[in-house]
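S1.2 Input.
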Amino acid sequence: MVDEMMVGGVVSAARLTRVIRRRLRSAAPDAVQVVAADPHELVDAPTRALDLAGRVRTPDDVLHGLLELLHANEIAVEPTGPDPAETHALGLPSPFGGHVVARREWAPFTVTERARAEAFLRVTAARPTGAVHEVLLPGGGQVVASAATGDEVTELDALLRACLSGADGADDDWTAADLRAVLLPSTGRCLVVRSADGTLVALASRMDADELDPAAEPVVLVHPDYRGQRLGGWLRDKLAAVSAA
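S1.3 Output.
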């Protein structure tokens, strides 16, 4: 069984479809689908899947990668899978809860594509979260730094308010989306620091590059109780090393 193949030439898609259907002796509309290809199609499917998986940094990256892998028109996380009557929809259990549902107009999804999508989700869900760094503070205390997961929105809100407490004219009109962008910058890195009891006490985030200031300093927050212990400097150095890796 041939799932897909590349064909070069000047014959139109409509004519090529008719020729192949005639050879297959089938007039069924889904017997063969011929669509224009782009240069990325020249990469074999396993290599393409690995390349897309390697770009994953955030949950949104997983969805974008799957969208490209399946050549889908749209993809979303939904509470349940698609209606069985939707022949041009593919639903898979989501690592984020619910179901990842991909849809496209030009053709139904094949069994091979389902297998690729399932493997892609397994690989990206199993990606390591990054190294954990134990930091001994000058005062003798110890904290632990690790990559942000994006689930620290409420804790970051509390840390921000503690850092801005007493500041004149401080702007606290931020949203959960703003905080999540700090935790999971699409082209940067973010490290969070926790005390021995698990409280978020510091953070450093290298936000998306600014075209006007590509060398901008990272965002660094240190709880007032942990200032003066060189934690901010350590975070800047570690974030620079992680970003360069």
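S1.4 Remarks. The chain has a mean pLDDT of 82.
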